[in-house]
Structures are given as structure tokens and as C-alpha cells.
Amino acid sequence: MAVELARRGLNLVLVGRDPAALQDVSDTVSSAHGVLTKTVQFDFSLVSTPQGAAPVHDSHTKIVQFDQGRADRSRFLAGDEAMGRLREAVAGLEVGVLVNNAGVAKPGAVYLHEADAEAWVRMVRVNLWAMTEVTAAVLPGMVERGRGAIVNIGSGAAEALPSYPLYSVYGASKQYVILLFYYVRFAGPYRAQ
Fold it and tell me: In CATH, what number does 95-193 get?
């Protein structure tokens, strides 16, 4: 997805857990397509904790340090410094396209009563909470400019229930994405054109 967007000339903010993978994608798209990139190391499973984000790097390899005392904590949930850092990383950027592609399917194919509760919490943080927070971070700019697109990468588990009976929490989390954007696209300033 990143390579195709860069091929079309879009500058990119790449977000992920693995700094080496982020740098590899950044280097690839910057050199092949001449676009600017910014990378944000971020573990979406830690979205509601202070440990979820690390410094931001742009395509010129300059490190952007976060002054933790500077963030307006009143805008964020208590203890959600990681999401505050991600919002700071995109502040002032004209985000034209958001691709929500993060997702977790673990604990995998298990009966609901056999799954580890921590795995559910991680799944909810990544598949619901983080996606919602990231979307909320870029929507104001899209509304202000009167344009923008959000692409959600989903799963057949959201619709094909008989095919995925042991993925109840995962399927429900992906159904959330469908329903959230069903409502958002018809809401006031977000109304789809």
C-alpha cells in the first residue's frame, strides 16, 4: 500500500512497531519515488498506556524528540501519552489519505471461554481503540480542507461468520470498523460526497 501511494506522489507517515521495517519501507519509497516520509514507531497494542510510541524520524533521518511536558494532556485520556505523541507527529500535516491497516487476530481460532483475556484486550486496543483514535486525529484536518479519504483494511471474518466461528472477538472487532464508518460517513461534517 505504501509503495503504491508513494508511486502516485503522496508523502507518507509510516506507523508501525518495528523500527527497522519502518526505515526499510521509508528508504525504499523515498529513493524510488522521491517522496518525503516520516516514521513513527508505535505499538498499537499499547494505545491506552504511556509506553506505546517512540521518537519520530523523517526521510532526512532527523530525529524529532517529544517534549512530554509540552503535550496538552486535557485533549487525551489520562495516561495515553502514546496517542498524544502520535497526534503530535501528524499535527500540522495535511493528511489526505489515511489507511487503517493495523490488526491483530490472536489468540486465533479458540472458543471464547478458552481465550486469554489479555489477548482480547490487545485485540481491542489495536483493532478498535487505536484505529478510532488515529482516525479522530486526522479527521479535523480533512473536514477543515473539505476533502480526504479513509481506507479501512478489513477481514472476511466480519461478514463470513460460518467460515470463522472460532474468531468471535476478532470478527466482532472487524464488524466494529464496518459499523463505525457506516455511521461516520453520514455524520454532519464527515458526510460522504
Answer: 3.40.50.720
